[in-house]
Amino acid sequence: MTDATFSRTIVPTPSSLSSLSSLALVSPLPPARPHTAAAASVAGSVDRLAASVARLELLHSVRSTTREAEKRARMMSRSGSGSFQRCLARIYDRWIDTFAHRERVIAIASAVEAGVLTDDHVRIGAETLASVHDRRLHDLYWATVRRWRQSRRTRAHP
To answer: How far apart are CA 142 and CA 109, in angstroms?
Structure first.
């Protein structure tokens, strides 16, 4: 590189960098949009995958809540606090009364798995949905209620 070439090289100064960054703040890049049908299909697949993962996380939460409740009920019944089923019902009563929003809906779904859901729990859950804006929680709650009603019909008419 000669001195003549070197003198033509543009070296950014702090003032030129600040004007570039202010330009970026004034005119941000437009959001990326799929330009082809294949790109749109991939974007849709990613959205469906994310929704599936979110549903799986909810199911995992329900199952881990059920395991925790059963563990606590076993400990309570061993200590003489009543039968396992009675202790389990008391645990869910307490949780559903005290938990808020997401955790309450998960506890209600878990209570169905454990076989201790009551009419009061269903009523509390319906009231809770008024303040829950997550569609997946609404879906979980109504699937839980359908499952519970079906199991009650099956037990009533074997």
So the answer is: 9
